[in-house]
Amino acid sequence: MENLTSSVEKNISIEREFRTKDFFLQWEWLLLLIFFLIHIINSQLSPYYLNTYTLLDATMTFLDKAFIALPMALVIIFGDIDISVASTVALSSVIMAVAYNAGLPMVLAILLCLFIGLLCGLINGLLIVKFKELSAVIVTLSTMTLYRGIAYIILEDQAAGEFPDWFNFPGWGYIKGIPFILILFALFAVIFLLLLHKTTFGRKVYAIGNNEVASKYSGVKVDKIKVAVFTLAGLMAGVTALFLTSKMGSTRPNIASGYELDVIAMVVLGGVSTSGGKGKIIGVLLAIFIIGFLRYGLGLVNVPDQVILIIVGLLLIVSVMLSNLNKK
Amino acid sequence: MAVILASGLASAEGRYAVIFKSAGNPFGEKLMDGFEKAVKEFGGEAILKAPAEPTAEAQIQMIEQLIAQHVDAIAISANDYDALEPALKKAMRRGIKVVSLDSAVNPDSRDVHINQANPELIGRVEVQAIYEMIGEEGQIAVLSATSQASNQNLWIEWMKKELKKPKYSNVELVKVAYGDDLRDKSVSETEALLKTYPELKGIIAPTTVGIAAAGKVLTDKGLKGEVYLTGLGLPSEMAEYIKNGVCPWMYLWNPIDLGYLGAYAAHALVTGDINGEVGDTFNAGFLGEKEVIQAGEGTEIMLGAPFKFDVVNIDKWKEVY
């Protein structure tokens, strides 16, 4: 605040910039505060909570869906939304299981799972840029039904599994005492952090979210970037499918039901505005761990599940209201 | 650390958890009541859990939370026969005893299963009942819970085996529909059955949520005497439909006793009275002496035979559960 000598006009614009900056700083600080509060409350509630084992193990219970939250943040920064991700998880998982049971080596089945995820995302992206008059929510609503429908056609009402023993590792394994899923998630979190905040690609994502038309006229390849981001969302749904299938040791067409809403909740609580153009990965990361540890800690003292849902819901409502206070 | 953990939490007789399929299910509430009653009798602490949604994913989270709390035993009514295996195996590795009840998990994931009634008997008896109701010929359908519910699936298999008998040559099972133990979905599945199969004469609903929903649909549509209903239902919920003739009779066992037996079996495992091996016997409170028997690849403890509810006895039982 040392620029008090500048002209009034400049002053106003600078001040406005500072205000939004301040707000965003505040938002992440607030999340951080909530994050620590939850740990303090949880450790008061349960004597089992505050030890390294429990805290590390807790991450295994909620990180599977968190992989999707990273690209979903980019989708929501566009001002779009993708509600087909949970169906993509189910379809990738089902195809992986069926392919493995049909004799495909597990390593290739895993790659196939990722590829199906990517393909589902690519189809979403292409449809969205092809049919501009349809909003992303409508397109992904259709593919949500389509992808899960295909999964049901493949497996009907049956389960499939019988995976090799080592496939337990992604969902349940540790490397030097740290859950494998946590290590991999940290890696992806860093990748997305750099992608969104340190590359021109990331800057273009913000530009599109702020003003799609203007960025098109200034030479941003809007369609290409959109397709890329939706494809990423599909790919990460494939990653989630791997971990979830490993966790359950078998799969069925109705897995991951409701995951899309959990993921969107993480992103919105993370301070990514649904009207587009705003948000940071760091906020999303904090939100993932806030919701995850909150649910885990309350579960640890056996609070009924519906009550946990109400508490998480209230947290979301309050956070959305707070983030709207800043909007003019 | 151990000192902190012991502070006021560990009760003398240990901590016993039960996880039902989903919350807000009257059958589940009764089952958990019975479980709690037994745990109080032998002086333990009961933890009752039920997820908001009937999914395996939600139950896995709960199992992990119970592992972190160092409970002594987990009794579970499973949403999926296989998908809980990794989580329950982890629990058993940590020294937690695992029994399944009501809806089984695969034998590798448990020490013993508590069976409410012989699955073969349940499946066959329901087919025999609907056969009698519809006048020995016509189309029938099944309205089940979720497609992964291991108990329902087993009963339906036995229904299909019973239907293969020559005397059922004029009975056609047209569809197995799944209402997922959700009331709304069970209602819409029943309506869909009636629409798709206008000739339908009977519905077997081997789930308390499904049969109550079907009973309401058939009553509202005035189909009494045209489409008959039987299956497994709670007397308190079904009294109205048994009296109005939509469901002439149905079967069930006592969910309170089922939960009660589950708790005593878990207790016997924890104290080392039994290991879940065939031939083990233990004392199950007011249910008396119970024995572990072979069941497929694993072992189980049998509660008893299914009980028939009809116009004659429904008023007495609807007060009980």
UniProtKB/TrEMBL annotation, chain A:
The chain crosses the membrane at residues 23-41, 53-76, 83-100, 106-127, 134-154, 174-196, 225-244, 256-274, 281-301, 307-325. It is a multi-pass membrane protein. Keywords: Cell inner membrane, Cell membrane, Membrane, Transmembrane, Transmembrane helix, Transport. One of its GO terms (molecular function) is transmembrane transporter activity. InterPro entries: ABC_transp_permease. GO terms for cellular component: plasma membrane. It is found in: Cell membrane. This is Autoinducer 2 import system permease protein LsrD. It comes from Iocasia fonsfrigidae.
